[in-house]
Amino acid sequence: MMSKVALSKVWSAGCAIAILAGCLLVACEKSSDAASIADAMPNATEAQREMIRRMEKTAPPTLNGVQLYTGPERTPTTKKGLTIVGYNYTDSAITNFSVDGAGAGNIEVSSRSYSYGGGACCAPIPQEKPLPIPVDIKWQRDGIGERPWCKQTVLLTGPMPKEANYFEVHFYQDGTIQVAITDYPSRPRVLMDRYSPALRKANGNVNNDTQHARCGDE
Q1: pLDDT tens for each residue of 138-167
Q2: I want to staple 91 with a disulfide (CB 3.0 to 4.6 A). Which of 9, 25, 126, 200 is the partner?
Q3: Whole-model pTM?
Q4: C-alpha span between 173 and 88 (Å, rounded)
Q5: Strand ranges, E, within 59-200
Q6: Which first-to-last residue range defines the signal peptide (predicted)?
């Protein structure tokens, strides 16, 4: 039988590894295909590594290092292609945009009669995933001259419709983006006039992409 001192040392070592793994899980924003933290701990036993792997699988998601609350809402349970549609309330057209790498086409400047663009399939949203989850939106403006690609990570939240058919991306004038899963394309959230499909106004148009996004070469 192991002595009390030996048992105490084993218990202390196990607790230390569990605490270290917990801290790393909260501090790091780890993608689903990244290596396990357990693989970087050569002194841990196989049982301890397995415990860490289980913790990784059940740990709440994070965004920019902040742990996210996962409520009762979840992504759709059935594997179904969600058609991507985009709403452009900004001052200039978007020639390309994507959702987590899935290309979605172009979006004209919205108007009172023109609501959304895109219409491509499909948004790569994982099944039966607790919400909220982070989604990467990437886009490029229409126009002449330098047109950098911009990328912004936003949160997909609930509620979820009974019939999930569309993935909506809403580009706002202040540079923020909101996303939603719907049963049918929504009416525009902002109703405005436009000068042309490419421009909100004849002159003086401003885009605030860099306020909330990272912009540069693709």
Answers
A1: 999 987 767 899 999 999 998 888 889 999
A2: 200
A3: 0.67
A4: 8
A5: 62-63, 66-67, 82-88, 94-99, 102-107, 117-123, 133-141, 149-156, 166-171, 177-182
A6: 1-27
